[in-house]
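Predict the 3D structure for this chain.
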Amino acid sequence: MDKLYNNTMKYDDLYDKKLEQQLKFINKDEHIVDNMIYCKNCDTQRLWISPNKQIVTRVLCECQSEELEREEIDKELEKVKAYSKLLKDRSKLGKRFYNVTLGKSKETADKLSDSLKTAHEGAETYVNNWDSNLKQGKGFYYWGENGVGKTHLVAGLCNFLIDKYYAKVLFTSTGDILKEIRASFDNPNKTEQQVFNFYVSLDLLVIDDIGKQRFKLKGEDTHAQEKLIEIVEARYKDKKPTGLTSNHSLRQLVDEKGLDKAVAGRIYECSKDFTLEIKSPNIRIMTDEEKWWQKD
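Done. Predicted structure below.
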């Protein structure tokens, strides 16, 4: 009995020493009530004592916990922003289209032409249903004359998908695809197959201004045709969305540029819900005086 009593006394002494040690160091935003440390701001405990009094330790009060949570959230947001920036840098949108948004370009479209307004509404529908479009491999095809706003519209669409869904998007052209493939011939660190696999793996591949190159010469497929067939076919099989812009309709690409009918069929099948001819004044050649919609 005496031994038990002595052990209890030792535990009590140890507890008193631990508590005394903790109470010695009080921060400016703390106060002591009944041998307990409290936060002056939220009035919750910053000291925890175990039921057997063997553990006396500091803990976070409610406002400290909330602050820590905010800091963690801020860190995660910074990671997300950094990832979004990385995706955008890799998208090849370039400085001109880096910060284009659907909202800003829609303001112009609403005032400029019904056709461009309809195109923007279609683009908004496309991005707002991205999960479904990605799953089904749905792309888009916007065509019309130079300067009607096709590229600007699609750049806003790409930025939206990167910023909201962190989609892996590439904004390129047939010419740039061919250049990268040719560059791989002399690059020991990158094979043509690796380049091809990259184009196929993207969540969304956007080929701007398709039709600048001819797809047949003297009845024979050009290099552009061969590579376009390979990429479009592979993405079609993998249900990967492909978006295209052009100065020509798909029929014109077939009849006038020699685009393979099978490729045109694949493009149409995957983009028929979002295929539209855009008719609008040529914004590029307008004078500042003619851009009346910017004066409001």
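The CA atoms of residues 55 and 195 lie 61 Å apart.
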